[in-house]
UniProtKB/TrEMBL annotation:
Keywords per UniProt: Methyltransferase, S-adenosyl-L-methionine, Transferase, tRNA processing
Organismal lineage: Archaea, Methanobacteriati, Methanobacteriota, Stenosarchaea group, Halobacteria
Protein name, as recorded: Methyltransferase domain-containing protein
Keyword Transferase: yes
Domain tRNA (adenine(58)-N(1))-methyltransferase catalytic subunit TRM61 C-terminal: 68-214
UniProt keyword annotation of RNA-binding present: no
Gene3D superfamilies: Vaccinia Virus protein VP39
MF-aspect GO terms: tRNA (adenine(58)-N1)-methyltransferase activity
Organism from which the protein derives: Natronomonas aquatica
PROSITE patterns: SAM_TRM61 (PS51620)
GO biological process, one term: tRNA methylation
């Protein structure tokens, strides 16, 4: 549960206790979203349900997670939806896997680092998707033979993504999508070349850039603070050819 008062936010389990500058807050075991609870000093906090954008701020991090704008592009360009199956590599914090799981997607995600994988499993519990996201410890490239054309979406955020892309035809169901995220353009190019070699269609690469706008008495302009660029996304689709044109 997210417990909020103004700019103060705490992520608490029902029955947990949190010390704040406004007093000690005890969350009842049977608390529901929308409930107003008070600290021992009588200061009120509102209990809210954890929503998608809150994941980025409150999941335990093991590295730099994918930004919400990047995840939005993955969802928008692939149309992944409830009932789909996704294979993911490079779990990290697990923000992408959690977002997909909250959409109703059945996710199998691989993380090489055992400690990172344990953290990601805890994050899936926090996000409420432990039942739909399977976090596995290991290297996806070593288990490719375990899968057979059963996924609607293949998402990769690893240095060896091109090695997996080469097997996309064996992993994706007909019409399935590939999405590769990379912070470096050289890696994106390698993923594109691998996608071409694998015979994938509709290959495109996007750089994700976002600028905040500042509005004040002097005028309006893009903010000079923050970083607009996050990375590159390579998209492709598996379109098997059945027969030949008549």
């Amino acid at each position: 549960m997210l417990v909020v008062r103004g700019s103060r936010e705490f992520l608490l389990e029902p029955g947990a206790t949190q010390e704040t500058d406004l007093g000690v807050l005890e969350l009842p075991e049977d608390v529901e979203p929308g409930t107003v609870v008070e600290t021992h000093l009588g200061e009120a906090f509102e209990v809210r349900r954890l929503r998608g954008p809150d994941l980025f701020d409150h999941l335990e991090r093991t590295g730099a997670p994918m930004m919400p704008r990047d995840i939005g592009l993955v969802v928008g360009h692939t149309g992944v939806a409830a009932g789909d199956r996704a294979l993911d590599a490079g779990t990290g914090t697990g923000v992408l896997a959690a977002y997909l799981g909250r959409l109703g997607v059945e996710v199998t995600t691989y993380e090489r680092d055992p400690e990172f994988a344990d953290t990601a499993r805890g994050n899936m519990e926090t996000a409420g998707v432990a039942g739909t996201v399977d976090v596995r410890t290991g290297d996806l490239t070593e288990t490719l033979d375990d899968f057979a054309a059963e996924f609607d979406l293949l998402t990769l955020d690893t240095e060896d993504a091109p090695a997996v892309v080469e097997h996309a035809e064996e992993l994706l169901a007909p019409g399935g999508f590939l999405a590769v995220y990379s912070p470096f353009v050289e890696s994106a190019r390698e993923a594109v070349e691998a996608a071409r070699g694998a015979g994938l269609a509709d290959i495109e690469t996007l750089e994700t850039i976002q600028r905040r706008m500042d509005f004040d008495d002097r005028g309006s302009r893009p903010s000079t603070a923050g970083v607009g660029h996050t990375g590159y996304l390579v998209f492709a689709r598996f379109r098997p050819q059945f027969g030949s044109p008549s």
